[in-house]
């Protein structure tokens, strides 16, 4: 209680409530197998996913006190019975170094605290064995006497066929390397019992004695802003099973990440995709701050385009689509600067574009919702989530995405962007001919369809949207529009000829859909793929 104020009443000073610290989401971690494009096969890695970065980690042995980080020289005193307490794999005949593949808890090698499963043996008693065969190294170790001095270095990129155990943070215990390895696993415990424990425990470490630990170290960081995920093999429609690749905007790639099961791979695909989506939304907000209200970005993201009749072995490629203002932009790389927006490969007016959703195949006849994120790994259909964009002159471009949630987002965004453009534009006019006379045909959001003389501007006929009862075309330039008079059931046919009939029909479809949506809001929900069932 403080001193009294002007009113004579004491002021009570209440303590300020403590602000709660913001809880940051914990990074997601897990193991995967990294496949290299070149020689060397595959190796086990750990993934660490944060909000904006996917990090690839590999195991390495680090010196935490004294000693050298690279090579380690260790002297082993053979136990009674000739045991060194370790096994080895590899050799020059397999084009890999000889590595320690197994260590037995409590035996000589384990008690040093300086040897680890995955260590490549470089020297034995001063003799270089980097290019020695498996049998030669076994012979040297067995005939080296009671004291064996070996120099080792941890093999970070151990080939997967060595089948070395991974994930252990410290020296290997009594776990083995697995019985299904294609390479011979030579046990050097000789007469020792690998399951037994040595009677003597490790002595207390000397103050200046080096200490080593096996740790996961960062080897590659892939920024997720504008990054893309691909399950496709390079240039082909074939999908990888339970594997994908993450490619950053600057070209950095994770390589092919293979997971132990389809479920684990799907979970990682969803997690990485969600972070990329969140970062893309941030980029959209930033871009919209510099754009006028009629030129806002509605949606953007990576897709895979199927190439038709290219004459090459490449059947698909990556494209970056942007729904912005009145247009659909197609980029080869995401636009980053203001100048990049003018460098689109193609630009289409949304009123003249028709979005077509392709048939989906989902297991167990399930329902697809906009937030489901279902991904049928291992489907026979090479492109399970596909859509087409039909543009002018009968052209069509087919795209695919990795997740059902991405397909739902594109369907909803196309619909929203088109409706916004129709209401913003209000009308579109096309030149045409009728009975040989040059005319203008206008689709108006408020008035419907109007045809007038291009010279005199005299209106020849006008019908509302509700009066349009059908249409037919010759697939080229001519179309017949069937209108019903308001006060009778009489049908009147209007035949027109356009230079780009496809663009006109798409425009009529866009204005009709937008008009219905403005009258019946439930129409939008009924047209979204979240409310449809596919089989």
TrEMBL record:
UniProt-recorded Gene Ontology molecular function terms: actin binding; neuroligin family protein binding; PDZ domain binding; structural molecule activity
Gene3D superfamilies: 2.30.42.10
Regions that span the bilayer: none
Record keywords, A-Z: Actin-binding, Cytoplasm, Cytoskeleton
Alphabetized InterPro entries for the sequence: PDZ (IPR001478), PDZ_sf (IPR036034), Syntrophin (IPR015482), Syntrophin_4th (IPR055108)
SMART domains, per database record: PDZ
Keyword Cytoplasm: yes
Family matches, as CDD domains: PDZ_syntrophin-like (cd06801)
Natural source organism: Canis lupus dingo (dingo)
Gene Ontology cellular-component terms listed: cytoskeleton; dystrophin-associated glycoprotein complex; nucleoplasm
A Pfam family hit: PDZ
Segments of this protein annotated with the region Disordered: 1-24
Domain of life, per lineage: Eukaryota
Protein name, per record: Syntrophin gamma 2
PDZ domain span: 73-156
Family named by the database record: Belongs to the syntrophin family.
Subcellular location: Cytoplasm, Cytoskeleton
PROSITE patterns for this protein: PDZ
